[in-house]
Structure formats: C-alpha cells, structure tokens
Amino acid sequence: MIQKGANVTWKNDDSVQHSIVSDSSAFSSPLLNKGETYTYQFNNSGSFSYHCVPHTYMKGTIVVA
Length: 65
Prior knowledge:
Number of helices: 0
Strand order of the largest sheet: 2-4-5
Radius of gyration: 12 Å
CATH superfamily: Cupredoxins -  blue copper proteins
Low-confidence stretches: none
Number of strands: 5
Shape: globular
Structural class: mainly beta
Mean pLDDT: 98
C-alpha cells in the first residue's frame, strides 16, 4: 500500500519489451526496453490493477490509501 501522492516507478530488467497499462485506462506506459523505467504519480485513493500489453498474463495491483 502506498499513500496518495506517491510515485511508483517500474523498471524493465528483462531482455524483452514490457508495458504498464492500467485496466481502467488511468495510466499507460510505452513499451519499455531493458533498463528503461516508467513512473506514475497516484493522486487518488483506490485499487489500480494493471497489465503488460505484450504479456497479458503479467498483472499487478497498486493500492493507494
């Protein structure tokens, strides 16, 4: 759980491209190559599910207090 207003940074450490896309269209990264990052600031409380477009089985959730 993170606090409202916090930034979350994802980093691709894999050899293939990945993306971070909100299931509710709240945020969306471009395809990230190895070593690239994407940062999003969560200004609203709630639960935010996301997935990777090329690998739809890769999923996560950010919970904001």
